[in-house]
Amino acid sequence: MSRLTETQDYRIFASTWNVGGKSPSRGLDLDDWLHSSPPADIYVLGFQEIVPLNAGNVLGTEDNVPAKKWVSLIRRTLNKNPEPSSHGGYRTPSPVPDPVVELDADFEGSSRRHDSSSFFQRRSFQNLSRSLRVEGNDMFPQPRLDRRFSVCGPVTLGGRPSNFDGNFMCTGSPDDQYIDEDANNGPYFSPFPYGYGASPPAEENNEHPNTPRYCLVASKQMVGVFLTVWVRNEIRNDVRNLKVSCVGRGLMGYLGNKGSISISMSLHHTTFCFVCCHLTSGEKEGDEFRRNSDVMEILRKTRFPRVRGCGDIKSPETILEHDRIIWLGDLNYRISLSYPSAKALVEMHNWKQLLEKDQLRIERRCGRVFQGWKEGKIYFPPTYKYSFNSDRYSGYGVRPKEKRRTPAWCDRILWYGNGIIQLSYVRGESRFSDHRPVYSIFVAEVEILRQRRRNMGYFSSRVEVEELLPYSHSYADIKFY
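Predicted structure:
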């Protein structure tokens, strides 16, 4: 036997949403947010402020009830989407205008935006007024609070050291779903139901007619930051080596009200890292340098334990050692303009001139942060800060001396590495919080090792076997691929 390396393309839907500490109701409609045609193979969904960032949540016990509600809503939405193609992997994407260009290219103004409005504008979520009501705990069991550490420390799972903490969830089977609207109260599943980094047994894969099309393979909460990864059920056995690392950058420089969650995984023989962050806030001059420092510390401190005994499967220890990386979150970079100047440009839909003062763009061009990373072309309006249940930016009608926020593109998605292409980069129009969700669709190349039998004549085969026999001390020494 010999090995043949092939590449297959997978669609990845990545999104970030600062939900402003609000817990979702049962009636919140996520279809407009999560709809993708054709459906993606992997969904990477990151949240910020999933709980209010008050002293009780930052210093005390972690409230995981809102996270459970979001997981249930996401599961329900993904599994009622149209059935994905049975061919697996990447399907031909829907035509999109203007594929992503380099960040340094000129940005278009309002005229270009209106021409592309059918693609880049999405309708608002339905039933908004109903979705803004919190319906208590009729949807989920009473809260169970777990002690939270803002920076993941080493724990032992099955006798192996790891930097998982007890709240990291890894699933391999829909039976392991830890929340469900119709499920009875039961214990949390273990991080690895089938052993360290293992996949579920083959007999459990897709033999039940009610098996969901998408399953949750990993989720992690650190105070208000929450990251989930979902995959098509057909490829869940190909996802291995799930690991998590958290870095706190909040109070005292290490608490988890700000910081990052990073999830590492392998899909076949390609490694992925998904980073969800919430960086330092603030509009004062120099606050952008604190955000730069957050990024550098996250890159420096994020560490994944090496997985041993996995043959030639790569086991990256740092973010940048992965083959494909997607970084999303509320990066909190602002617009370096006065409120009146920014307001005037927003009203004119002059995104090109507004983006020239975007701090993230400026810092990247100066080489102070995210060197070598890529971000797609921005056609959409600033995503922050909106008034409650409104399409108006906060601060309109407020007296100049009162506190008001300059509109900004706080919510961003970047990527790093070869073999990954961005198809779209848009925002949603939900009024659920003071931020608008941002999402992107990628196509990522994945390496797959295939077994190939050598074509040999009888004589050459006999000679090759005889040459190997003296070196084989027992049947157990022979490796079958």
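Summary: Confidence is low (pLDDT under 50) at residues 84-166, 171-207, 456-481.
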